[in-house]
Write a structure and sequence with these properties.
The protein is mostly beta strands and about 100 residues long. Helices cover about 0% and strands about 70% of the residues. The protein contains no helices and six strands.
Length: about 100
Amino acid sequence: MTGFGVRGGYQFFVTSRIKSSPEGFYVGPHLSYNSLTEKSTDTSVSTTGIGLMLGYQWIWKSGLTLDLGIGPMYTFASESETDESFEGFLPNVTIAIGYNF
């Protein structure tokens, strides 16, 4: 199986803290595209989604960053072999750990 995915979004931080790095509560839109292909059956599935994310991002003095978010995503999915498709809302969750330089 092979696959490819890409996601882009924007985070608008609504907390009143003035810091050099974005921290606190945020809201923002996002878009995503994913494609998977099963080589043995030559079947492919692709999804496209648009959604809204609500979340919170923490940055500790050590530089460790934690981002937690949740929101709805409207998804369009199609499968090539049987021509089946899906369209509707799905939950979207973000859990990200990183380092702030």
